[in-house]
């Protein structure tokens, strides 16, 4: 059991929730960040505590730099300095490029990309001082191969790779690693609203023959923040059942 402090952004639902529960089961003291789904976040806290884990709620809009600064100060005071940061919060605002509004672009870049910059910036100094740190950011296969209707999302998810690789170069000599995970299609609220014919079309492209589960992604996140992954840096690990190989 590690006893380290982990902050998972967007941990009230979906992939972030699975990552928070998994890390808590390994002994991390987990800060459960969320934006507005208070009841869902409390459920995650309850699930962790009832299994003997340690966690705290950490409400903040991670697209807002002032709230991120305050979030890290609060987590550091309540649990200790963040040693494992999982930047997972994300949204979609899909539209064809010709119809995409400025707001759809800005919201997706703010929540999926700028948030990673704000959180990593807040985390990096104590990590470098401690000569240990793990940063994992949730990219997407959309960021690797593009996706019609997702120019904003794909740009944000590709941008994440640039941030992680730069952190890997800046902080690699201080025991800090920065990596990204690129999930394929994972069954969460984010994908639940896709029409059935689109879902079936996606399934046909997945050699594994099934959609991904949040736990499939949590397994990889738990590995990347562990001591076992200390020599993996600046990488993107695709977890998509073989969809984009
Ligand atoms: P989800 O079920 O929709 O959950 C999104 C989470 O992000 C929620 O906890 C939400 O908090 C939080 N969030 C959204 N905006 C936020 C903000 N401004 N500040 C703080 N938290 C915020 O999404 P998911 O499917 O689990 O996706 C998680 C990550 O994986 C995202 O980055 C997504 O892009 C990426 N991803 C997902 C898939 C997939 O197939 N599902 C595939 C590739 C990549 P509230 O509950 O408070 O709203």
CATH class: Alpha Beta
Tell me what portion of residues adopts beta-strand conformation.
15-25%
N-end to C-end Cα span: 35 Å
Largest sheet strand order: 3-2-1-4-5-6-7
Shape: globular
For the record, the CATH architecture stands as 3-Layer(aba) Sandwich
Small ligands present: NADP nicotinamide-adenine-dinucleotide phosphate
Give me the CATH superfamily.
Answer: NAD(P)-binding Rossmann-like Domain
* CATH topology-level name: Rossmann fold
Query: Structural class, please?
Result: alpha/beta
Largest sheet: 7 strands, parallel
Could you tell me the mean pLDDT?
97
Number of strands: 7
- Taken in chain order, the helices and strands follow as EHEHEHEHEHHEHHHE
Low-confidence stretches: none
Q: What's the helix count?
A: 9
Portion of residues within helices: 40-55%
Explain this structure to me?
Helix 4 links the parallel strand 4 (84-87) and strand 5 (133-138). The protein is globular and about 45 Å long. The protein is α/β, with parallel strands linked by helices. The protein has a 7-stranded parallel beta sheet with strand order 3-2-1-4-5-6-7, with helices on both faces. It has helices at residues 14-25, 38-50, 65-78, 102-130, 141-145, 151-171, 189-192, 196-204, 214-224, and strands spanning 5-8, 29-34, 54-59, 84-87, 133-138, 176-183, 236-239. The protein has one domain (5-236): Rossmann fold, CATH 3.40.50.720. Residues 9-16, 33-37, 40, 61-63, 88-91, 111-112, 138, 140, 183, 185-186, 188-191 line the site of NADP nicotinamide-adenine-dinucleotide phosphate.
